[in-house]
């Protein structure tokens, strides 16, 4: 027992959190940036070219947040529908700003070819606190399921529900950071009464395909575009990335629906989750944003070309 890494200052090893521990965790969360300034301030200029929809509202003791999506203005029912999401984990900065940058610079390029829906910041409370969970210590990206306990997840599911079955592609923009290992995985183990087991953070960009609907050519097309901007993560000594077997260079697979992950919500033929590594000495924050934009463009291009 002496070699166990207790790993987190809240709770006791082997005992899942109760209300007291969750309240203590919440008391430690500090607002560090502004959703209104960073996200809503970037959405407002898009209103002249696209439709902006308020698709939900989150009311927390620490503040209320309106949730917005940007969509093609001249929506045509005979065109395929594609979805770009970011900020499911609020701390994953390039996912939010990559989605916003894509909408600003490239969404208009697909007019008359595709209907595009962009939800750039699904978890605004977590965005402001650079946090993975919502205030209830729930991970939205394990909560995309019926009767979701996460308001963030439930709101997005309501947004896409009328279009389910019409989506051709969904790309969900994420990051893997050093804080996954130093903070968030430790907190997860503590919350669930488990012992933290150290892992390895991959250095570079990678994708998560759907194990139940793998689309390897689609994944490789996205990676090819991103590789022009930043490096692709290699497998570790076990042939894995974050504990999952590498099925192709830069690609792992998850059972998206079973795990309640965001990329499962549309039933699209083509789905992927991006993971950039902003803490790499070989990448800058701007490169990470550009990689997310390139991934979104490549994903839509491939989907439209291959139907």
Automatic annotation (TrEMBL):
Its cofactor is Zn(2+). It holds the Pfam family AstE_AspA_cat. Residues 31-307 form the Peptidase M14 domain. Keywords: Hydrolase, Metal-binding, Zinc. InterPro entries: AstE_AspA_cat, Peptidase_M14. Belongs to the peptidase M14 family. This is M14 family metallocarboxypeptidase. It comes from Dyella lipolytica.
């Amino acid at each position: 027992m002496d070699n166990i890494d207790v790993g987190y200052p809240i709770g006791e090893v082997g005992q899942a959190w109760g209300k007291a521990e969750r309240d203590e965790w919440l008391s430690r969360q500090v607002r560090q940036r502004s959703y209104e300034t960073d996200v809503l301030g970037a959405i407002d200029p898009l209103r002249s070219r696209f439709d902006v929809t308020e698709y939900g509202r989150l009311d927390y003791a620490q503040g209320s947040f309106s949730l917005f999506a940007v969509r093609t203005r001249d929506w045509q029912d005979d065109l395929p529908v594609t979805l770009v999401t970011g900020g499911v984990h609020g701390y994953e900065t390039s996912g939010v700003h990559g989605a916003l940058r894509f909408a600003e610079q490239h969404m208009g390029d697909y007019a008359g070819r595709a209907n595009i829906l962009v939800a750039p910041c699904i978890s605004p409370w977590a965005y402001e606190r650079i946090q993975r969970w919502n205030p209830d210590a729930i991970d939205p990206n394990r909560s995309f399921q019926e009767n979701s306990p996460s308001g963030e997840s439930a709101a997005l599911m309501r947004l896409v529900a009328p279009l389910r079955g019409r989506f051709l592609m969904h790309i969900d923009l994420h990051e893997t950071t050093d804080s996954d290992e130093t903070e968030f995985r430790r907190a997860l183990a503590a919350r669930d009464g488990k012992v933290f087991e150290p892992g390895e953070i991959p250095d570079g960009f990678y994708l998560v395909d759907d194990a139940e609907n793998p689309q390897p050519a689609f994944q490789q097309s996205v990676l090819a575009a991103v590789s022009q901007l930043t490096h692709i993560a290699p497998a570790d000594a076990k042939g894995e990335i974050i504990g999952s077997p590498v099925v192709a260079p830069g690609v792992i697979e998850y059972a998206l629906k079973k795990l309640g992950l965001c990329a499962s919500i549309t039933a699209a033929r083509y789905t992927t989750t991006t993971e950039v590594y902003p803490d790499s000495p070989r990448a800058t924050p701007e490169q990470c944003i550009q990689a997310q934009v390139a991934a979104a463009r490549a994903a839509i291009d491939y989907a439209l070309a291959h139907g």
